[in-house]
Amino acid sequence: MNDKNKSPVGWYVGSYLIRFIELENGDNDDTEERFTSWENTIIVKACDLDEAYNKVIDFAKMDTNPYRGGPDGVPVQWVLEGVTELLPIYNELEDGAEIMWAEHAPRKLKNLRKLVKARNEFRQ
Questions:
Q1: Whether 43 contacts 13, CB under 8 Å
Q2: Which of 19, 31, 75, 109 is 20 to 30 A from 48 via CA?
Q3: Mean pLDDT for the chain overall
């Protein structure tokens, strides 16, 4: 029997959440404060889910060094909040290989169609 938590091809897809702070702002730990955030998704080569988790964290930390931003050179930083998704990849990586899936609870057709975007909506 295959373990659904282990990738037979040694690849995992993981997402992590980082938020942007100004280092001198006293509200950086206020849970009611609003922050710009990015959820980044990466793939990692790993033997198991634990190693994959550690690698996602390690890669995510690469984006969290303090720097001076904006025209005034304000001390800023992206703060790692943690991993939001971690899934084994079950297929060899190739054109068209499935790497992620999500199950949705039953919804009305009109609401399902709201999830779909037109080609031009992917451009930023």
A1: yes
A2: 19
A3: 93
